[in-house]
Amino acid sequence: MADLVKLCLYISYFYGRLTGVLNFEIDLRTGKTRITKWATTYSACAQVFLFTFMTYHTYETRTMINMWAKTNSLHKSVFLIMAVFRILCVLLALIYRWSKRQRFIRLFNSFRRLFRNNPEVIQYCRKGILSKCFCATATELIQLAMSLILVQKYLTITLALGIWSVLTMSAITNVIITQYYFAIANIRGRYILLNKELEAILNEAQSLAPNRRGVFVTKCCSLADRLDEISHTQSELQDLTDRLSKTYELQLLCMAITYYLNSVGGFYIMFSLGKYKNLVEDWPKIVLFLGVAYFFFFYLDSWVTMFNSFHLLDVHAEMVKLMAQRTLLSPDLDNRLEATFESFELNLARNPFKLLEFLKLIAPHALLGLTRP
Fold it and tell me: What is the pTM (predicted TM-score) of this model?
């Protein structure tokens, strides 16, 4: 299982390099990041070529005009508007990554240190990582298969490059969302470990016997030290989450709009296909099956992505609930341990988790028709 997770992370890294989303290199042995001329040049050239050809493909390709011959002006206008907005959203996200490249590198280094210090967090997020990679890969492959089947009669080198540009736009969206997903999953895994340690401290504090003064004070000091470490780590995780949200804020807003356009466009296509039968009279039946599969994996991927963030909110709420159990402890605890509990509880109250505010800002669950149970 660990090897599969490592494989998913490697594939995500190389996919990001191939699409030009990652404009810096990562040493896979040490995890160190570096800005190189090759990474900078390749990423810039890949993105310039992509957007240049995507624009040409959207407006000028004769084959696309022939394929739209059976559609009315409304269909053409809808698809053009969606294509333009998707291009602008992805372009804005990539421009932001160039302008904040050093911030992205520092953020990645922070997560590298987090994983290096606590490699066991992978066991608490591996299922989520595998699920995300499977859904994203299935969506990409189905989209590729549908595109090739539909255009096989018109396939030329120009059209093949056009399909590549469209799929690359989708891949860029997936890469950015997947990077954010991995980061949130890593933080969630560390939170789970903290909650386990906090629960152990509460159980040990509840079993203390105040009548054994020497052992009692020593044990209280040890628990206070461990609780201080948890409090410090939680503050670092919350600060890391805030930095992550601010760094990815604009990108995820653009990706949410792109997801929304994909969703609306998909429903519009299904409505059009149901109303205008002549649009699909030449389509192989396998395309309709693949279309259903695509929507299934598309929404499953969206669901997995959104609930990863909600699960992080849940483990933070669990920590708050665990801290509330301190009222059940003996009132005769050592003063230092009591003060440590109070300080940690006040920090949790004064610094609420801001990820929820970020989720409300981008509101992708509303855009995609997803709601939390």
Answer: 0.86
